[in-house]
Amino acid sequence: MSKETPEAHAHIPMQHVGPIKLIGPEVAGDIMAPLATYEAPLWPSTNRGARVSAAAGGLSVVIVDERMTRSVLLQAPDVARAADIAQALPARREALAAVVEETSRFARFTDVHTQVVGNLLYLRFELTTGDAAGHNMVTAAADHLINWLLKEYPDLSYGSISGNYCTDKKPSAVNGILGRGKYVVVECTVPRRACERWLKTTPEKVAELNLKKNWIGTTLAGGIRSANAHFANMLLGFYLATGQDAANIVEGAQGFTHAELRGEDLYFSVTLPNVIVGTVGSGKGLDFVRENLKAMGCLDERAPGENARRLAAIAGAVVWCGELSLLAAQTNPGELMKAHLNLER
């Protein structure tokens, strides 16, 4: 595009859902969350889950872990040398951390994982990145780390700045196992009365469908570290409304829905190991994005990283609301299609 060509924008309908009631420990309060989507039934469905969150006393959200990753590929003369270096690097954590801190005020080295394939050496660097999602920050750190490694080990040669062991925007097992982004868990025990009144179903039906659809059905399909109905729907809408890299729903939607009876009530949780969000960086300067982030309290004066943690917690809560509502709808024959016909035709 030439400098004379005016910038174009894609306009996507956006509405706010909620209030979603959160009771901590990451976020406490009533939150209105934005969703940008062409799928009109997503707004009323997620709103229904939000009503349940209030009727149940609120959602508890915990961020179990956080880190951003970039893997690099280097080549050794032979497998013996590749294995020697792979075994030596974990003991050089302080040196690796020092290289990382030279690249950014906010990047902090967390860990390194290695894999050897023939004479190929794959290194997965893990960092915390403050309030940024961290794509560029980890890549810049990895670039400096490569230069350092090639000086420290002259018999190594460059392979690639990204060796796909990250793994970025692709379904994989490694992200859920080792971590990439924020590891978010949202849980709530929903009273039977709330299930019957707002969801038009019972705790037993939701728990049974979650097992048969999300766990057994996904296993039949060969799903990778995933057992959920439609995490991607809520994540995409939330990502577009808050200026995130929308392609990260590929790994973000790999997560688990867990439902079980607690006496007469329904325990319902969603676990999202790979929520990649930030409150600074590309896309965050758009007026509507800043308004949305500010309204959710994600642009407040806090310690580095806390605004991004808050945003990830809210993202998880939105997923909880939409996931519960859809599963409830699917326990009743015809309800899902009727809603789409009424709202989209």
Blueprint (SSEs and pairs):
Blueprint: E1 14-25, E2 28-36, H1 42-55, E3 59-75, H2 79-88, H3 93-101, E4 108-117, E5 120-128, H4 135-152, E6 157-160, H5 174-178, E7 181-190, H6 192-199, H7 203-221, H8 231-241, H9 249-252, E8 256-262, E9 265-275, H10 287-295, H11 306-330, H12 335-344
Parallel strand pairs: 1-3
Antiparallel strand pairs: 1-2, 3-5, 3-6, 3-7, 4-5, 7-9, 8-9
Helix pairs in contact: 1-6, 1-11, 3-4, 7-11, 8-11
Task: Provide a compact summary of the structure.
With about 350 residues, the chain is an alpha+beta fold.
Describe the protein's architecture and organization.
With 345 residues, this protein is of the alpha+beta class. It has 2 domains: 14-65 and 181-344, 3-hydroxy-3-methylglutaryl-coenzyme A Reductase, Chain A, domain 2 (Alpha-Beta Complex); 67-160, 2-Layer Sandwich (Alpha-Beta Plaits), CATH 3.30.70.420. Helices cover 41% and strands 26% of the residues. The protein has helices at 42-55, 79-88, 93-101, 135-152, 174-178, 192-199, 203-221, 231-241, 249-252, 287-295, 306-330, 335-344, and strands at 14-25, 28-36, 59-75, 108-117, 120-128, 157-160, 181-190, 256-262, 265-275. Strands 1, 2, 3, 4, 5, 6, 7, 8 and 9 form a 9-stranded mixed beta sheet that branches. A hairpin with a 2-residue loop joins strand 8 and strand 9. The chain is globular and about 70 Å long. The two termini are 37 Å apart.
